[in-house]
Design a protein that fits this description.
34% helix, seven-stranded mixed β-sheet, 9 strands
């Protein structure tokens, strides 16, 4: 069965920029105290057990969570990104995979992080993605999501000096909250901040903490 076209183009785009992306963003958390604080809160809230950073890119969020004592691994659609992450953090596990069909057993995770990784997912596919998140999380497992806020859809053809074919979708927190609820994930906290004055970020950013309902199917 052929994969959706957006999966193919997204993979190819991130393969193209993998090395440049790592050089540009791998120290990003050093200048983001709010992100570090929320990742630390996530680490405290997650029950004992494995955690997966879905859409891990070059692995710096995965590595930060590992530094907080978490049993964490990374998954990314892009083999190029996974190769970069494995080189940078050889002590950690990184696998190639799609959030549309995670190679994980039902209820096997204590926590899941999606750090800007839903921004390339068409809105029509979000219910399937969130159902997959709910499937792999154990009851009372914790989800942390970070994404750009808005209603716009942008299409990029060049990034970091490389040709790409990539759509970026902004989403409204209340819409995401409703979709998560339909999947059996209850949002416990929503925080929205304005973009950093660094010339890189454009538009507000949302942080959602959710838990998988104990009665979710």
């Amino acid at each position: 069965m052929s994969e959706p076209a957006f999966v193919t183009t997204t993979r190819a785009s991130f393969d193209a920029v993998a090395g440049s992306y790592a050089e540009t963003f791998s120290d990003e958390l050093a200048g983001k105290p709010l992100d570090r604080a929320l990742l630390a809160a996530f680490a405290e809230l997650v029950p004992a057990g494995p955690v997966v950073d879905v859409g891990c890119g070059p692995g710096y969020v995965t590595a930060h969570l590992a530094s907080l004592g978490m049993d964490v691994s990374g998954v990314d659609l892009s083999p190029g990104m996974v190769e970069v992450a494995r080189r940078a953090y050889p002590q950690l596990r990184f696998d190639v995979g799609s959030m549309l069909e995670l190679d994980l057993a039902d209820g096997s995770l204590a926590g899941l992080v999606a750090y800007y990784s839903i921004v390339n997912i068409p809105r029509a596919e979000l219910p399937a993605v969130f159902a997959e998140f709910a499937r792999v999380l154990a009851p009372e497992g914790v989800l942390l999501m970070v994404f750009q806020v808005g209603d716009e859809v942008r299409h990029g053809t060049e990034w970091l000096g490389h040709a790409i074919d990539l759509h970026v979708y902004r989403n409204q927190p209340d819409v995401v909250t409703g979709l998560l609820a339909e999947a059996g994930l209850s949002v416990r906290m929503t925080t929205v901040r304005q973009p950093d004055d660094d010339g890189v970020e454009v538009g507000p950013r949302a942080y959602l903490l959710a838990t998988r309902s104990s009665g979710a199917a």
